[in-house]
Design brief:
Length: about 525
């Protein structure tokens, strides 16, 4: 005998991404939802366009449960496609647009998509690996379609077909978001509908967001920040998601003004770049009241004073979303990324999985207290999934410490700690100190092999434009501001650092180059 479904369970089954858009379009059809340089798209327009595109995709054979890869820059078509696939119960798998060659081939092959939506400007890098991806049978192009492909605009022009939305459970797969790959090969993180919407609610509560907010994000839509922590919260708020094409130091505040943004997010390097721009008369000429991101540097109070907005730090990752927030009603604690907020349990553990004492750095482990609020593993990588979720905890790979009041402090990646002559050195702490030098724009610190069997500290440093900077002078400057064992032995002055499209430094590439040719503090000539 079939058991009846309770009203509460039925409501949870309906609480998927498409259902939320449909409700928003019914309640506030003309209110702006997506704001880009090309203009605004209302909730009603988003619902109509996504319904039409879903019909076109259905005619091509896209069905519930299918993975569909996207190779798209930040554009309205990206968001419309995401909602269209949600209507069908299909899964959106957006690919990092910087990928080329074997990395792009492997990322597309990993998720087994038969359909790819690609922008005309990115077609050449896909075309270079197309022959190695025989499983991709349907190619949809945003822009001018090459022969043998489908035009995205033609699918949209066909209009809706009257078919009802797919019956999608809240735990069904919604997104496959690739890890950034800053420390190794990217993995596709399995994210459910409830993960997206529960994270959105957590962002709203944790940051005190309001219905009249305009949430600005200049980072890629294939990243958690833009899709899950900007578009999805705006959807729940019936507010505005303002998505920039890409981060630009020179255009940043102009875009904030043009979008009338009230909230923005930052990443460490981008905030430093904004801070080190020369002060201008228009620094406070904007509506932004709040900025959130990681990490929050020591000069954050001066940034707040100069630009007239509050900065708060949080902690999150693609696999768990944001789980630690700086309490808005308590004085900030320097260096802290906040307190636990939401349906999760956390523990700081040693290398064997045992909890460490208060004040001692340990790996952050996370366990959900509600269904479908943590990733469901990595697509097509069962061993990696088991390893990450061993002992019924998700192992973040991040080292944090906790004080007696429950505030957490980010120490660094477990793989980003330099072991030098018996001391564990946080690369993040050395980087923060070096970036306080007035001639330094940004830097990255890594460990390189030492003849003493452990590691030595190496700093890759980008000077501010027009600012002279010598490696020996920088090392001497560091000597007066940090413990002697933390001072970099090797220093390389470079024009730029290799980065992912989410502005994370690709330290794997730096480690591959090593210390060869760098200035050496312990060389006899020094």
């Amino acid at each position: 005998m079939t058991q009846p479904v309770s009203p509460a369970a039925a409501d949870r089954c309906q609480h998927a991404l498409w259902g939320e858009l449909a409700r928003a379009a019914s309640e506030v059809p003309d209110a702006p939802f997506l704001r880009m340089a090309s203009g605004d798209l209302s909730f009603g327009a988003m619902e109509r366009q996504a319904s039409s595109l879903a019909a076109g995709l259905r005619r091509l054979g896209v069905a519930a449960g299918a993975n569909v890869s996207l190779l798209l820059p930040n554009c309205a078509e990206f968001v419309v496609t995401w909602f269209a696939l949600a209507r069908l119960g299909a899964v959106t798998a957006p690919v990092n647009t910087a990928m080329r060659g074997s990395l792009l081939r492997d990322a597309l092959a990993l998720v087994g998509s038969e359909v790819l939506v690609v922008h005309e400007t990115l077609w050449p890098q896909f075309e270079a690996v197309r022959a190695e991806l025989p499983g991709l049978k349907t190619l949809i192009v945003v822009g001018q379609p090459p022969a043998g492909t489908q035009a995205w605009s033609a699918l949209l022009a066909g209009g809706p077909d009257g078919a009802p939305p797919a019956d999608v459970h809240f735990s069904s797969l919604c997104l496959l978001l690739y890890t950034s790959g800053s420390t190794g090969r990217s993995k596709a993180v399995r994210i459910s509908h409830r993960f997206v919407l529960r994270q959105a609610r957590g962002v709203i509560d944790g940051l005190g967001l309001r219905a009249d907010d305009v949430l600005y994000c200049p980072y890629p839509l294939f990243h958690l920040d833009a899709a899950v922590m900007t578009v999805a919260p705006a959807l729940l708020l019936r507010g505005v998601a303002a998505i920039g094409e890409r981060f630009s130091v020179s255009r940043y505040w102009d875009e904030v003004r043009a979008f009338q943004a009230t909230v923005f997010d930052f990443m460490g390097a981008t905030l430093t770049m904004l801070w080190k721009q020369p002060p201008a008369a228009r620094d406070r000429e904007h509506r932004a009241r709040l900025g959130w991101g990681v990490p929050l540097p020591a000069w954050a109070p001066q940034f707040e004073q100069r630009f007239g907005c509050r900065l708060v730090e949080l902690y999150g990752s693609t696999e768990v979303g944001a789980i630690l927030y700086t309490p808005l009603d308590e004085p900030a604690r320097p260096g802290s990324c906040g307190k636990l907020r939401g349906p999760w349990r956390v523990m700081l553990a040693d290398a064997d999985g045992f909890e460490v004492p208060v004040g001692t750095p340990g790996e952050l482990l996370v366990r959900p207290e509600e269904p479908s609020v943590l990733m469901d593993g990595y697509w097509g990588q069962p061993q990696e999934s088991l390893q990450a979720l061993r002992n019924q905890w998700f192992h973040t790979g991040d080292l944090l410490r906790r004080d007696e009041d429950g505030w957490y402090y980010f120490v660094g990646r477990a793989k980003d700690v330099v072991r030098r002559r018996g001391e564990n050195i946080s690369a993040a702490e050395v980087e923060q100190a070096i970036e306080e030098h007035p001639a330094v724009l940004e830097c990255a610190v890594i460990g390189v092999p030492s003849e003493l069997t452990e590691e030595d500290v190496m700093a890759w440093v980008v000077p501010r434009p027009g600012q002279p900077l010598r490696a020996d002078e920088l090392a001497a400057w560091c000597g007066g501001r940090m413990a002697g064992f933390m001072v970099p032995r090797f220093v390389r002055i470079v024009d730029e650092l290799p980065k992912t499209p989410t502005d994370k430094v690709e330290k794997t590439r730096l480690r591959e180059q090593g210390a060869a040719g760098a200035w050496d503090r312990e060389a006899p000539s020094h």
